[in-house]
Structures are given as C-alpha cells and as structure tokens.
Design goal:
The protein has three helices and six strands. The chain is of the alpha+beta class. A three-stranded antiparallel β-sheet has the order 1-4-5. Strands 2-6-3 form a three-stranded mixed β-sheet, with no helix packed on it. A hairpin with a 2-residue loop joins strand 4 and strand 5. Helix 2 runs antiparallel to helix 3. The longest helix has 66 residues. It is elongated.
C-alpha cells in the first residue's frame, strides 16, 4: 500500500509539474501568437498606407498629365508668336502700303495669344523688374547708373509660363553697378 501511495504522490507531482510545463508552453505560445498578430496588423496598416500613397500619386500624375499635356505643342507655337511680334516691330505703322498686312499680323497675333491664354499659357515680360533666375535667362550685363543692380534693362525674348510652370525663360539684359573709375594720378604733384 505504501508503494501505491508513493506512485500516486509521484504521479500527482508529475501531473502538477506537467500542468505547470503545459501552462508555460501555452503562455509562450499565446505570447508568440500575440506578437505575430501585432506584426500582421502592423504590416496590414503599412500596406493600406502604401496603397493610399500609390493612389494619391497616381491621381497627381493624371492631374499633371492633363495640366501639362500641351507643354510641347505650346512651346512649339512660341516661335510663331515671336515671328509675328518681330514682323510687327519691323513694319512701319505709318506706311500705308503695308497697313492691311500689318492689321492682318496684329489680328493673327491677337488670335494666337488669346488661344494660348485660354490654355493657361501666360507671357513673362520682365522689363524693369528684378532679375529672377527661375524665370529669366541673363544674356548680358550692362552698367547702369539709372537703375538698381540686378534689374532687367531689356528683354530680347519674352518668356512663357504654362499653368505657372516655366515653359520658356525670358532672355534679358541685366543691370550691374558701374565700375569705379581708377583714381587718376595728379602729375603736377
């Protein structure tokens, strides 16, 4: 009978230690599964955020494509505008023999400029404004006592913007401070 009691005690001890081991194994497994669940939730949130970012970027790309689709075409038309403007500059407004041709040039230029404006192409004519390297291209610098240094004195070619983005920079002459004359030597001294 003592042997049976010892066996029962040992079996109870094994069950208790086995239950403790099983509980520890279950607790470790639960902890591991909770960590995996947290990682999966985090990954799911990241994927959703990335998907939202991709969708937003695609919408922006489509908007830019619509907005700037005419960029190359409008840039090519600027040469026509320049030619019409030069033709008007070189023709004399007082010459009666070319008056009908000049009026035709003026009307054609106005029609072309109105069409460009309808598609958000705006001219940049910076005469008298401070030089802006984002919209102007300096072709030369000229000394000037009448204007502040860095001011646009002349415009060789107007620049253009498409929806506020530079299509062609304005080619300009920029003022600079006059150079100081070297001190003259007084030879009588």
């Amino acid at each position: 009978m003592a042997d049976e009691q010892n066996l029962d005690n040992q079996s109870a001890e094994l069950n208790e230690s086995g239950d403790a081991g099983v509980n520890e194994d279950l607790a470790a497994r639960v902890q591991s599964l909770e960590e995996q669940l947290a990682a999966a939730q985090d990954q799911s949130l990241r994927v959703a955020a990335e998907l939202q970012n991709i969708r937003r970027r695609a919408e922006q790309d489509v908007e830019k494509a619509h907005k700037f689709a005419l960029e190359k075409f409008a840039g090519d038309l600027l040469g026509v505008v320049d030619s019409l403007e030069r033709g008007l500059e070189l023709s004399s407004p007082g010459d009666e023999s070319i008056k009908p041709m000049r009026e035709g040039l003026e009307l054609t230029l106005k029609l072309l400029l109105d069409t460009l404006a309808r598609y958000q192409v705006a001219s940049v004519d910076p005469h008298g404004e401070p030089f802006n390297p984002e919209h102007h291209q300096a072709m030369a610098m000229e000394e000037s006592t009448n204007t502040e240094p860095g001011t646009v004195l002349r415009v060789f070619q107007k620049g253009y913007l498409l929806h506020g983005r530079l299509l062609r920079p304005a080619m300009v002459v920029v003022s600079k401070a006059p150079a100081e004359a070297p001190p003259s030597i007084d030879e009588k001294a």
